[in-house]
Amino acid sequence: MKKVSYFFTFILFAFFWSLPLLGQPKDGIEIKKITADLYCLTGSGGNMAVLDTADGLLLVDSKLEHKAELVLKKIREISPKPIRYLICTHYHDDHTGGLLTLGKDAEIIAQENCRASLVRREPKKTKIPFLNGIKTYDREMEITLGGQAIKLLHLNPAHTSGDTVVIFKNQEIIHVGDLFFNGLPPYIDLNDGADTSNWLSAIDVLSKVYADFTVIPGHGPLTDMKGFLGFAAYLEYMKTEVEKAVLAGKTAKEAMDEIKTDRFPAIKDQDSFSSHKNVVFWLFQEFSARKKAN
After folding, report:
1. What is the rounded CA–CA span in Å between residue 18 and residue 133?
2. Nearest to 43 by CA among 83, 73, 71
3. To pair with 277 at 20 to 30 A between CA atoms, which of 51, 103, 114, 271?
4. DSSP class of 187
5. Which of 193, 287, 274, 180 has the alpha carbon at shortest distance from 234?
6. Are 234 and 279 in contact (CB under 8 A)?
7. Is 146 exposed, middle or buried (0-12, 13-18, 19+ CB in 10 A)?
């Protein structure tokens, strides 16, 4: 893929994630209580999870930087207890922007590739000492807080190189980060080693091991495993159609114009960035690069 294409994709990406999605509150954060002790914070960035235990709070993700103080106020509506852990599902700004505010007194944990990506994309280099202090793991890790075991799992590069799935065993809930865009086309971060074959394999594994769990997506409403598998069917279809187009010698533009998504009416374009056409474009670049390498 041409470097200039990656540059403009990144610019669009930064703009896109500053916008509210799927009717989420424009100026605020909404608290959704899932169980007696587990909450989801929606609005302005990726979905967060807050686990309230006797020994303090565990957060999953931290939303956008400019919303960090508002997010902290919302967390204090849930509980005044200290934030003990902050888990990063991946490095994107709409999931890690509030790290410095929400995680200043907490232990921040990320998959090792995620921390490397955070450090690499730090423009002014002033936050690198803070980012280097993030605790990392490779494949899986377990945290115990308030008598509860929370599992962190990395199933190879997928949406990014360092995706983490957070498994709340007691509540039978998983937070899958941006392995799941519920109701909208996904972003495929080729700059950070995204791999859609691994992505589909990860969903397959999770759907079998945690078949009855509630799923918190990175974006969009909570759902069940059936909803997660519906997203996987979309990604599989798009991947297959793009591979056919590449092998037939079509251009990226031809593939973007010709591939139809009518069979997935629940997945809707959000704007010029979060669109079916861009999914085709990213898949085209991914498969073309792999074909050339082989």
Report:
1. 27
2. 71
3. 114
4. P
5. 180
6. no
7. middle
Residues 60, 64, 70, 75: what is their CA dihedral angle, to the nearest 10 degrees? 0
Which residue in the block uniquely carries the two structure tokens 């587990």?
A: 38
> Is 135 in contact with 109 (CB distance < 8 Å)?
yes
Residues 6 or more apart whose Cβ sits within 8 Å of residue 14: 93
Predicted confidence (pLDDT) per residue in 56-102, tens digit: 999 999 999 999 999 999 999 999 999 999 999 999 999 999 999 99
Which amino acid is present at 118? L
- Distance of alpha carbon 3 from its chain centroid, rounded? 24
pLDDT at 86: 98
Domain 3-293 CATH class label: alpha beta
Helix, strand, coil share (%) of the chain residues, nearest 5: 40, 20, 40
Strand, coil or helix: 285? helix
User: In Å, what is the CA distance from 31 to each residue of 48, 104, 283?
Assistant: 10, 22, 35
The SS3 of residue 165 is: strand
Residue 28 has a pLDDT of 75
C-alpha count within 13 angstroms, C-beta hemisphere, residue 229: 13
**Cα–Cα distance, 201 to 42 (Å, whole number):** 27
pLDDT at 26: 53
User: Which distant-in-sequence residues (6+ apart) come within 8 Å of 103 by Cβ?
Assistant: 59, 62, 83, 86
Residues of the chain with pLDDT under 70: 1-27
